[in-house]
Known about the structure:
Elements: H1 2-29, E1 38-39, H2 41-48, H3 52-64, E2 69-70, E3 76-77, H4 83-107, H5 110-129, H6 133-150, H7 154-176, H8 184-199, H9 203-224
Antiparallel strand pairs: 1-3, 2-3
Amino acid sequence: xxxxxxxxxxxxxxxxxxxxxxxxxxxxxxxxxxxxxxxxxxxxxxxxxxxxxxxxxxxxxxxxxxxxxxxxxxxxxxxxxxxxxxxxxxxxxxxxxxxxxxxxxxxxxxxxxxxxxxxxxxxxxxxxxxxxxxxxxxxxxxxxxxxxxxxxxxxxxxxxxxxxxxxxxxxxxxxxxxxxxxxxxxxxxxxxxxxxxxxxxxxxxxxxxxxxxxxxxxxxxxxxxxxxxxxxxxxxxxx
Length: 239
């Protein structure tokens, strides 16, 4: 009986650890944590509503995924972004996520297409009426990952999540801090192109629309001047 209890406890601990890791990943990808922001286990625990123990385990995984940085003094922070690193990330995202959109055009089901259209319509309506940058970014992320799920390649989706972990803080934090979504009309045009391409099963149109969407957002980030030329520009993590 004790063995069964111990096994149940272990399963609950593993399940909670996986849940906390997933929640923290989502926060980083959604830009809820700023580049250079210093983090404490207590703060992260409060964000997801758990004790510090599962958070500590999740942080170790996120450091291994290069989503967080652990300094020699054990302080945890969100990585800063340099121009060269962001340029590299943008190039890789265009190729990999563009490929995913093309695959979605070839493989999506009717039900997946309905989900993609619903999210696109919600994004377009939100941008046109509410001008809420945070809500627009959440819908944008949901739309993108609905497309990647429709590609039917779980390993590819995992790779893309890793890219968003690296780029989410600078993209979503800076875009989301605006009064309204910058370049939102252009984003809607890009979304129309990629969604229409997926609907018509046209992989080239889907790929081009998604790549244009990534380029539009990246151009805004470069224009803000918030990208460091090198890490030497900063005084360390921003608090």
